[in-house]
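Methanogenesis marker protein 9 (Methanolobus chelungpuianus), 381 aa
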Amino acid sequence: MPDKPFDLKVGYVSFRNPIALAPMGGMTDSKFANQYASDAGLVILGGYNLDPGTQEAASKMLARGREEFISENPLRLIEEEIGAVKSGAVIGINVRSTSIGPLIEAATAIKNMGAILELDAHCRQEEMTDTGAGQALLNDIPRLTEWISKIRGTGVVLSVKIRGNVVEDIMLVKAIERAGADILHLDAMKAGQGADLKLIKEIRDSTRMFLICNNSVTGTEDAKEMFSRGADMVSVARGVLEDPGLISSLVRDISAVQRDMGWYNAPKHVCRGEGDLRGLTFCCLPVKSCPVHSNIKKLGLTPQQFADIKMDFAKGTMLEYGDSTCFGSLVWCCKISKPCFLRDGVLETLGLSDAEYMRLKKELGDYIIEQARKSSSGPKN
């Protein structure tokens, strides 16, 4: 296993692990990050209010007891805060504005410091949404996508933070991706139910953007549930106030999964109805009635095309072997966490570790989706 177990890159940034500190207005600054997120792969500071409209809204929020960042020179504050983070994590800056100009200015400065800009389309406080900022952007997709396109024009790595179950999510996500965003930061909120895992799966199947998921993560099992539905990264916020060691424990546990299994966010099997499209890598030959058929249909593939894609990938790899398995090749075998003496016997004979097998399965999962996109218009949602 390499010294750096994760290979997580977006544009000019590389994350050392898939755990992030999420922004909380008036709380998540450099001091907070240094105290609670020294081990994180990404710390997102903010949200910072860039223009008079959002500054005034923040002042009203402060007056009724909410915490907010207010500065006469927000860009100088942002630059100082980036320089004050000592952990070595990638830094993201969550920002709000009522117009595009301050966002372009901030994006240029943030890019020059090697950080990420995160556009806040998430804040639902009435004072902020009344200005057209925050969550109000979700109800004005033309303006949102125009801003995304212009911000990306600066070359900055761009994340867009949204709240789920506010508008039609798949339409929104596809619009954000077409506009050029690099990262989608999803608060998978479902009122009264905690994290909406079904929504995470549906969004994973609809986009190839780097996906950060957030909501109600208080321990490793919560994170694993998000990872198994397609999250590339999981972010935590108020959970660190209750457990100051939360991020460190998440990093430790998920790093152990990556070392032992080779694929920290491996999907669930699609036959359980919970796995995203990457889970097709674990599917049997499609010769009987099962959910594999509905899932390959989402990719615009016939059963024969799906079989051909898997067998084409297997050629020249260890997945080509396995005469004694159910369908004569490891390419049709299941997730390593599911007991199978036939598969395990082949792995032992080949000298292929669990982690090496799963890394090949990850490559296969990506290959299936990429080949489907090349031959069709992509997933049918």
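The chain has two domains: 8-261, 270-375. The mean pLDDT is 95. ok done for today
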